[in-house]
Amino acid sequence: MEAVVSASHGAVQILLRKLGNILATKYTLLHGIRGEIQELKDELESMTACLRDLADNDDHNEQTMTWMKQVREVAFDVEDCMDRFCHHLSRNHGDRHGLLEYLHRMFNMVRTLRVRHKVATDIQCLKSRAQKVSDRKLRYTYSLDDSAGRSGKALGTSYSHLGSLDRWLPAIHGDGPGLVGMGKMTDAVVGLLNEQRLATVGPRVLSMVGFGGVGKTTLATTVYNSPKLGGIQCRAFIPVSQTYDVRSLLESMLKQLLASAKKDKNDDPLKNIKDWDERDLFVKIKQHLADKRYLIILDDVWRAAAWDQLNVAIPRNNNQGSIIITTRSQEVAENCCTSSNIYKMNRLDKGDSEKLFFKTVFNPGQCPIDLLEVSKVILRRCNGLPLAIVSIGRMLARRQNQTPAEWQTVCNRLGSELETNPTLEGMRRILSLSYSDLPYHLKACFLYLCAFREDSEIRIGSLIRRWAAEGLIIGMYDRSLEEIAQIYLDEFVSRSIVIPEKFGCSGKIKSCKVHDMMLEVIIAKSVKENFISFLGSGQYNTTAGHDKVRRLFIHTGGTKEKITFPSKNIVHTRSLTILDSTVKPVPIKFSDLKLIRVLDLEGCRWLSDKNLKEICKLSLLRYLSLRNTAIPQLPNSVGKLKELVTLDVRETSVVEFPKGITQLQNLNHLLVGSYAYYTRTRSVKHFGWSEGAKVPLGLGNMGALQRISHADISTEKSSRAMRELGKLCQLTRLCVVNMKEAKFWKPFAESLDELSNSLRYLMVVDGSLEGEELEFLVRLKNPPLFLQSLHLKGRLTKLPDWVSSLNNLASLSLRETYHLTEASFKVLGKLPSLVSLKLYCWGYAGSALRFEEDMFLQLKQLVVDNLENLEKLSFRGGARNLERLTLAFLRVPSRGIHGIGKENLRHLREVEFFGVIVESIFDQVFEAAKEYPNHLKVTREDRPTTEAPQGPAQQVDNTGPGTGSSEQEPTDQQVDMPALRCEDEDDEATPAWRVPPSTCPHAYIL
Predict the structure, then answer these.
(1) Same domain for 226 and 370
(2) What does each C-alpha distance from 740 to 744, 769, 771 come to in angstroms?
(3) Which UniProt keywords apply (predicted)?
(4) Taking a C-beta distance cutoff of 8 angstroms, is the pair 679, 965 a contact?
């Protein structure tokens, strides 16, 4: 029941910070209610302390859950009251001095008299409510100690149940090879354990890491019983779990290790074991293992500390032993052994998933034809998770009505089945353990992931900005909220509860997914505790029982029908998301949402100018996404959104920002523009050059700006606005476009000198075709030496000298620079942090690309896109860490391609061809790939001959060299691409990849 604890505590913590800030301000208008606010803050602090105590327990009774819900609702209402009050206080409040300041203060006192009276009344009522909530807890004689006792008992029972649950998988299907999908994995692990040992000290330690329910325990069990693991003299299988007692584990280990030893009836080695202390147990185990070949499995390890404690009993002078550790945590796995001994457990592929499912449901393992289609739907929901496949299969096997309609109903109601069906109880508990084990401050952020639809990739940039707007990220030290959020995500990935889909070139996660079954678990938690409410398609189409809806997500599922919603609940909504709807799904007036902080309307094509004017009255709004909508422009009244932090109008027709936008002094992220993608992995992309937006004069007033993308400076007014960039001392990411005269670059160049310390990402795009358009970059007095990403399009006479000093540069792309030679290439080869290099059409003018020894030591991604002068490409000891190579050629290089082989590029995982494929080059690489032992993938995406797809995010420039296959829909013949794809840091994009059937790409896995 941590959902309500986490949600309640999170709400109160946010409010306490806000109340503290209000009480610490210089507002004189707090006179008369300051004491009331202080008392209310004190009351809520006491509630917070109690909530933290409750978080240590795993289960709570109904009275406790009701009390926590009431605490959360009081906190939300107090915060709403304070936000409204502060909005009135801050309106038209500026920096004034002397008599002017005094007169303004007096005027404000009169102006806000009615507001202050209402706030004073509301605070009195809320303080009374808070006190009654506290009294109610005592009145019903709630006992924290009793609850803890009950929780501990329940916890022990559940762990006992769970300890055996994951082990019934082999019992269903037979041991060893009889278990679907385990044969090859068992052989692989046994092979590792049987390998010839080097003369190292200590046993071989192997960690199996993976998502809960993926089969780690099952695999460990089959290895434990495998006859292929020869010569084992003693063995032990020790379930550790979240709560463990070291002494009990040591006793169990010693008893199992001695079970196979010859015993003297008169000399029991375990005599009086209960009287031994832990030191005696350590000594006995170490002595017994000193000269034996043994196998010890430590199952379900949640903390590295557990391994540290048990490792003391392992003798260091015997290298014949083997220890297998199963864990959900990558961090634990890395702490227990070296990276080369970590075995990553993957989900079952499509074929094995079907075998396991049909074997579970049907005795012969043969599925009736009429159930095949619905079976595929169910298996997609299971997403290769053996525990889910078997659990749902067992449930369906018990159904009397084996009909497609009945099975489809079960699939649609899987979330409620998880909560109520005894057959699925074990799976729900196992998956819930991963959530329960999260640190306290991460739980609300993880619950928030259930807002995104099944199978959808969650864009990390948007997610982080939403977390921040919702107040779910707790600030620490000198880190930004984005940095803290990235730490949160890394923790989720380490615990195997979030699946990374794409990585940026610096290693940061760019998009992720949550497994469907885990999604069902956290959806159930969120809905039950009113953390999030859902409307539309799907099973959670209700807000029944929720007094006030705080976060509302409307999933239309493509339907054009309007959704009925009780309007009385909407006024309390703090977050509203409506995605990809063609008609307005809810009859709602945006102007009624006066308390809203987050509004995401991505893909809502029905959005009108009238809607925008209503939205611009939402004074508390902090996050606004109008991405991929049909809006042609923003109203000037957008300047009224004083609290706005993120404004996203990417993939729209907005080409100019109104003057009013310069009044947004809290805005951090100003996002506009779109990309076209030429490969399914999105390794090759092209900015929609006409998609930038002109910025008005007054840009310097927006001192909080951290990111501007993409600003069009191709007019006198917008160019002059660039003179104010130097005032934006927090600006870290900047994308600037000029498609007209080169003279417009001069003001920008002057400001760029003033941003040298802050910029981390810079994109400069020129299309004026006047000559040396980007030459100003060569002449910079104070270049941005802390850049991590640099992307240039436009003519340069040479590579700027300061590029050689970019020690932090991880990503570089060059397009149509025309004059960069082999000497410049050698400079790039010495950059110590460069991970991604993309050389597009005319981005390199030399005739040869030579990757020599000690060049490009960190490079993992290389794109060579139709370089006009290229006659030779060779790898001779450089770029030894290269993982992905993307190639497009106008013709066969006369001096050939050399060095693409396992001797030079031993880490290469994929070679992808795009555009017009030169068959002889493809054949050459394909033959070289056959020698790779690591299943090198070779893909080709032929340039389509059909008309380019429509839509603002899919416009493809086919007017010149450098374009490849456009963004198109995959067909059934296509082979899935790798899950981990490297992208530019600024790329959060975008629509699904599309290829017409006649130009379907092909993948070859060798």
Answers:
(1) no
(2) 8, 8, 12
(3) Coiled coil, Leucine-rich repeat, Nucleotide-binding, Plant defense, Repeat
(4) yes
Q: Does some domain include residue 267? A: no
Q: Say how many domains are in the chain.
A: 4
Q: What are 20-40's pLDDT values in tens digits?
A: 655 555 444 555 666 777 777
Q: Which of 467, 462, 458 is nearest to 500 (CA)?
A: 458
DSSP symbol at 668: -
Query: What DSSP string describes 780-837?
Result: -SS--TT-SEEEEES-BSS--GGGGG-TT--EEEEES-B---HHHHHHHHT-TT--EE
Contact present, 721 and 749 (Cβ < 8 Å): no
DSSP class of 1003: E
> Residues 552-583, buried b or exposed e (16+ Cβ, 10 A)?
bbbbbeeeeeebebeeebbebbbbbbbbbbee
Q: How do residues 397-433 score in pLDDT, each as one tens digit?
A: 887 778 888 888 888 777 777 777 777 777 888 888 8
Q: Name the pLDDT band for 72 (thresholds 50, 70, 90).
A: confident
- Residue 597: phi and psi, rounded to 5, are -110, -30
Please check whether residues 88 and 217 belong to one and the same domain. no
Q: Please check whether residues 194 and 329 belong to one and the same domain.
A: yes
- Taking the CA of residue 314 as centre, how many other CA atoms within 13 Å lie in the half-sphere pointing to its CB? 27
Q: Are residues 393 and 294 in the same domain?
A: no
Shared domain for 381 and 487, answered yes or no, is no
**Which of 60-69, 345-354, 707-716 is predicted least confidently?**
60-69
Cα–Cα distance measured from residue 475 to residue 460, given in angstroms and rounded to the nearest whole number = 18
- Give yes or no for residue 508 having a pLDDT over 70: yes
Rounded distance, CA 126 to CA 958, Å? 63
Specify the pTM: 0.80
Q: Which of 106, 126, 157 is the last residue of a domain?
A: 157
Q: Is residue 678 a part of any domain in this protein? A: no
**CB-based contact 620:596 (threshold 8 Å):** yes
Q: Name the nearest CA neighbour of 64 among 129, 136, 155.
A: 136
At residue 999 the predicted structure's pLDDT band, cuts being 50, 70 and 90, is very low
Closest alpha carbon to 465 in 237, 733, 167: 733
Q: What's the burial of 819, exposed, middle or buried (CB within 10 Å: 0-12/13-18/19+)? A: middle
Q: What is the pLDDT of residues 795-819, one digit of tens each?
A: 888 899 999 999 999 999 999 988 8
**Average pLDDT over every residue of 137-154:** 49
Higher pLDDT, 893 or 2: 893
- How many residues are present in the chain? 1006
Whether pLDDT at 581 is above 70: yes
Residue 737 has which token pair? 């476009």
Residue 797 included in any domain: no
Quick one: pLDDT at residue 811?
A: 93
Closest CA to 737 of 639, 838, 815, 624: 815
Q: Are residues 144 and 178 in the same domain?
A: no
Q: In degrees, to the nearest 5, what angle opens at C-alpha 246 toward C-alphas 243 and 248?
A: 90
**Of 157, 179, 204, which marks where a domain is finished?**
157
H or E segment at 765? Answer: strand 761-766
Asked whether residue 24 is assigned to any structural domain, the reply reads yes
Residue 386's domain spans which residues? Answer: 348-428
Residue 584 near residue 561 (C-beta atoms within 8 A)? no
Q: Judge contact between 811 and 789, C-beta under 8 A.
A: yes
pLDDT the model gives residue 946: 34
Q: Give the pLDDT of residue 266.
A: 63
C-alpha span between 792 and 790 (Å, rounded): 7
Examine the domain organization and report whether 323 and 358 are in the same domain: no
Strand residues in 57-209 grouped as ranges (E): 204-209
Q: What is the DSSP string of 321-387?
A: -EEEEEES-HHHHHHHS-GGGEEEPPPP-HHHHHHHHHHHHSTTS---GGGHHHHHHHHHHHTT-HH
Q: Provide the CATH number for the domain around residue 253.
A: 3.40.50.300
Mean pLDDT of 419-448: 81
Nearest of 35, 116, 45, 128 to residue 82 by alpha carbon: 116
